[in-house]
Structures are given as structure tokens and as C-alpha cells.
Design brief:
Distance between the termini: 120 Å
Mean pLDDT: 78
Number of helices: 3
Largest sheet: 12 strands, mixed
Helix content: under 10%
Structural class: mainly beta
CATH class of the largest domain: Mainly Beta
Number of strands: 40
Radius of gyration: 38 Å
CATH topology of the largest domain: Immunoglobulin-like
Strand content: over 45%
Length: 515
């Protein structure tokens, strides 16, 4: 029997006899060919638990005068097995698959070569997990079988044709569109030859593409991620039982314009789901690279940073995630701060230095006792706000001005202001440490920007304590800094008045102005 004529006649009969069959039960329980979704199969390239550990790469500016670098790390995981992907956006359940393309071969009884049964047929949903072709087809009745090849995500960039090297099979020739929103995840389901009338053909789809996404890393600074570009990426390939003939390098750019404030949670997507890149699985060549264009809101500079992706592997059915973390370029330094101080009431005068910080950026400073504190609290104040008495080395509490306004001479534990220059002198006031057990006291100085609270610059200050003999306390020298008495801009002479009664021994000190 001529199978081509037989199949053509079969198709005509199918069209005539099933034109009025619209009910789901009629389709599922007749000899009309229909399909159902069963489960998602493994991608076939690596096991579902075979995910790569994070790998860090550094993005550097191509401009040698720009020393900015972005720390980026890469993780690889499965494309979520509980849903399929189409146009980058996840389909949460099989019922959301509204249609696909179907291809079929007829396998005659015996060892005769398979014959093309139908090609490029549109399959659409006919009910809950039930799909059928627009043109109805019947199962063979002469002992032959049918094999099926179904593809979700086929587009104008997808050409499916019989594979001449493997009779009874098809091949996919695919070119990735430049526009991410037009990139479909190709989902393929195939069957062995079968003949199961009254039963929908069970389809188990697997992902053919590799998904590439971008998220916020562990650190981010204020600004805007303008664009992300992958270049030197092979955009064409042929799939049979695996990908081959992978070639045609090109660039893919996402113009994301993602504004950042500096406190984004790690893992926050940089681009919307529909901008997920669906790429041909491949090992990236020597020219492959990642480029990020970032507008730095702190320095007002636009940085173009690149990193080589040579030898990275994008695996079939896997999601490669690039975690882009932008470490702030600014620097906060603290000069003239001795980290060991004496036991008296201490006034310290460090300088805060800002580098690559825009004027008007809001800063915060705090000083607190972190070990062996007292009822008296430390404080911090801008030099410009310190009154003349404190500048002269006097430890005063509250002052009443000529206008009867009560003001603090020592500021408070916290200080907030806006950057007005690169050098900001401050005063730190530490209360006396007369700890009865001779325990040193520790303070912590923190400086940070309001928009970037996770990047604090901190220093610890240790304040010595007297050595006690009963109720009499002895001053102590430090081997490191020789901190002793009031550490101030004066020459200090220490004398000793002797008495036979140890309780009458005491120190005296004479302060002489160096000027």
C-alpha cells in the first residue's frame, strides 16, 4: 500500500469525520490524536543537583585612568523544574502552556523507513491539560505506529526539518533574536513510536536553552545601572539530540536603567522577568565578555566596566545568574586618632577625610562605649561647633550664653550632617575612666553615609584605667603610645609630694602653655 496516499486519505477522512467534534471527551476518547503534559524531564546535560559553586570575577574599566572595579560572582542552578519558561517569564503550571508546534513520523509495520506524517502543525489547548492539532488526525489502523516531536517556543527564528542523518527524527536550526523580549525558551518533548488510541499522547518537555539572569550582589552603591551587555556570544545552533554547529558571535544588550540606592537586598533582579536572556548552551569563547555601564551618583561619573567570560559554560536546562555587586568607590579615612587614650577626661581631635564623595552627601557619626561603659556618655562634635572653652581644653558640661541659651559644650553620641569638603575636623570627648577594678574601657567610633549604612568605617578606642591600691589610684603609662594624664597641646610636668602616710601621697601637675 502507498503510505503517502494512505496518510493523505487518512487526513481527509479525519477532517470530514471530526469537524463537529468539539467536546473534550470526544477528543480524548476517540481515535483522534491528542496530547497531554506529564512532567518536565531533565535537560540531559547535567544532573539536577549538579550545580556549580559561586565563581567570582572582577569587572575593570577599559580606561586605565579609571580604577573602579565591580565584584561579580556567578552561580549556576537548574531552571526551575516546577514550571516551564517562555519569553523569559515563568509559566507557573502546565495548564498555562496554551500551544506549541507538533511534528510526526509514520512508522510502518516491519522495518520500512519512517515517513513524514505531518509537520509544523499548530497545537492548542482544548481543556484542562488537553491539546489537539487544528487539523484533526487519526491513529493508524494497519499496525503502524506514530512518533511525535513537539516544540514550545518556536518562532520565525526556528526552522524544524527532518534530520536526514537520522531517519524518523527532526533537527532544529535556531538563531537567538537580539531583543531579549523576543527570546523564547525552546521546550522539546519527543516520543518513541506508539499507537495509543483513546489516550492523549503524554509529553515530557525538557529545556533546550540556557537561561542567563542578572541580580544585585552583596554590595551596591547609589547610582544607576544603565546597561548590561554580553558580547562575543554564539547566537546560532542546530539541535538534534544535542546542540551542534554553534556559531555566529553577536552582542546582546539589556538597557535596564536600574536605579540603586545602596541598600538593595542581595538577589534583587536587575531587569524584569521578560528581559531574561535565553541563550544557546555553549562554552564561551575567548572574545566573550560582560560589560556593565554604571552611573555613579556619588562621584557623578559614568563607568564602563568589563570582564572576560572566556571558558564559562552555559549549560542546557540551567540558569546562570550573574550577581553584580558594586563596591563604593568613595573612601572615608580617619587621621590623628590615637586608638589608646589615658584615664582622664579626654578630648581627641581627629580629622575625617572624604575621597570621591559628592558635596551634600549626608553622613552619620556615632561614638559609644562597647566595653566597661559608665553613666557618663562619650560624645562627638564638629570642630566648627565646639566652643572656645572646649577648644582650650576645658571639660565643661552645659554653657549659658549671653542670650541665656543653654548649649552643650561637647555635642552628643551621634552626629548627622552633610559633606562640605574633603577634610572635616571633629572633637571626641571621653569621660574619665576611674573603674574600681582597673578595667580598661573600649569605645567604638562609626562613620557612614545615610544611603549606605552597610559600609561603615569603624575604629576602636581603648581608654586606660588607674591601678588601684585600696582607694588610691595610680596612673599608668602605655608601652605603645605613652598616654598619660591630659594628652593635650601642653608640656606637662609631674611632681610627687611625699608623706609618710601613704593615704596622703598625691600627684600634682603643672601645665605650661607651649606658646
Amino acid at each position: 500500500m502507498n503510505h503517502s496516499k494512505y496518510l493523505a486519505l487518512l487526513s481527509l477522512l479525519a477532517l470530514a469525520s471530526c469537524s463537529d467534534q468539539t467536546a473534550e471527551q470526544d477528543i480524548a476518547e476517540s481515535r483522534t490524536i491528542s496530547f497531554s503534559y506529564t512532567s518536565e524531564s531533565s535537560p540531559g546535560s547535567r544532573g539536577s543537583n549538579d550545580a556549580m559553586p559561586p565563581q567570582e570575577i572582577t569587572l575593570m574599566s577599559e580606561d586605565s585612568s579609571d580604577t573602579t572595579s565591580l565584584k561579580t560572582y556567578v552561580t549556576v542552578s537548574d531552571i526551575a523544574s516546577e514550571h516551564c519558561i517562555s519569553r523569559g517569564k515563568p509559566i507557573e503550571s502546565p495548564g498555562e502552556i496554551t500551544g506549541f508546534k507538533a511534528y510526526s513520523f509514520f512508522h510502518p509495520a516491519g522495518n520500512a523507513a519512517p515517513l513524514l506524517f505531518f509537520s509544523d502543525e499548530t497545537v492548542s489547548s482544548k481543556g484542562a491539560n488537553l491539546y489537539a492539532t487544528a487539523n484533526s488526525y487519526f491513529w493508524p489502523t494497519d499496525g503502524g505506529n506514530l512518533s511525535f516531536y513537539t516544540l514550545v517556543g518556536a518562532s520565525d527564528n526556528t526552522v524544524v526539518s527532518p534530520d536526514t542523518d537520522t531517519p524518523g527524527s527532526f533537527k532544529i536550526d535556531y538563531s537567538v533574536p537580539s531583543d531579549a523580549t523576543a527570546q523564547n525558551d525552546l521546550l522539546l518533548a519527543t516520543t518513541a513510536p506508539l499507537n495509543t488510541p483513546n489516550t492523549p499522547v503524554p509529553l515530557s518537555f525538557r529545556h533546550l536553552c540556557s537561561q542567563v539572569t542578572f541580580v544585585i550582589g552583596n554590595k551596591m552603591q547609589r547610582g544607576t545601572i544603565k546597561s548590561i551587555t554580553l558580547s562575543g556570544i554564539n547566537s546560532h545552533g542546530v539541535y538534534t539530540s544535542s546542540w551542534s554547529t554553534v556559531d555566529t558571535p553577536k552582542s546582546f544588550t539589556l538597557n535596564v536603567d536600574k536605579a540603586t540606592v545602596g541598600n538593595e537586598a542581595a538577589g534583587t533582579p536587575i531587569a524584569a522577568a521578560e528581559y531574561t536572556l535565553m541563550m544557546i548552551p555553549q562554552t564561551l569563547g575567548p572574545d566573550a565578555k560582560l560589560t556593565v555601564v554604571f552611573d555613579d551618583a556619588i562621584s557623578g561619573t559614568t563607568h564602563t566596566l568589563t570582564a572576560s567570560l572566556a571558558n564559562d559554560s552555559w549549560l542546557q536546562g540551567k540558569k546562570t545568574t550573574y550577581h553584580i555587586g558594586i563596591t563604593p568607590r568613595y573612601e572615608i579615612d580617619i587621621n590623628n586618632l590615637a586608638e589608646e587614650q589615658d584615664a582622664h577626661y579626654v578630648i581627641i581631635k581627629p580629622n575625617i577625610l572624604f575621597t570621591n564623595v559628592a558635596l551634600g552627601t549626608e553622613y552619620n557619626i556615632s561614638i559609644s562605649a562597647i566595653e566597661n561603659g559608665s553613666d557618663e556618655t562619650p560624645s562627638v562634635q564638629l570642630e566648627s561647633d565646639v566652643n572656645e572653652y572646649a577648644k582650650s581644653g576645658m571639660w565643661t558640661d552645659k554653657l549659658t550664653t549671653t542670650n541665656n541659651v543653654v548649649e552643650s559644650a561637647r555635642g552628643s553620641q551621634t552626629l548627622t550632617g552633610k559633606v562640605t569638603g574633603t577634610n572635616m575636623p571633629i572633637y571626641i570627648f571621653l569621660p574619665e575612666n576611674a573603674d574600681a577594678n582597673g578595667m580598661a574601657r573600649k569605645y567604638k567610633l562609626d562613620i557612614w553615609f545615610t544611603y549606605d549604612p552597610q559600609n561603615k568605617v569603624s575604629r576602636e578606642i581603648t581608654q586606660l584605667a588607674p591601678a588601684w591600691n585600696g582607694s588610691f589610684g595610680w596612673e599608668q603609662f602605655s608601652e605603645n603610645s605613652l598616654a598619660f594624664g591630659f594628652d593635650w597641646d601642653y608640656i606637662v610636668y609631674y611632681g610627687y609630694l611625699y608623706s609618710s602616710d601613704i593615704t596622703d601621697r598625691r600627684f600634682c601637675q603643672k601645665l605650661i602653655d607651649q606658646n
